[in-house]
Amino acid sequence: MESQALRSSDWTLKRKRLPGMASLARGLRILVDPRFRSEWLLARRRPDNLFQPSGHTWGDRYEVFFSFVRDQMIGVTTPRLLSFGCSTGDEVFNLRRLFPQADIAGIDINPRSIAVARKRLRKTGDPAITFELSNSAQSLPEAHFDAIFCMAVFRHGDLEASRPDSCADKIDFADFERTVTGMCRCLRPGGYLVLRHSHFRFEDTQAFAAFKPVYRHRNRRGAVLLYGADNRRVEGALEQDVVFRKRAGCSGRCAGGERQCVKTQ
Question: Which domains, from first to last, does the chain contain?
Answer without folding.
Answer: 2-45 (no CATH), 63-246 (3.40.50.150)
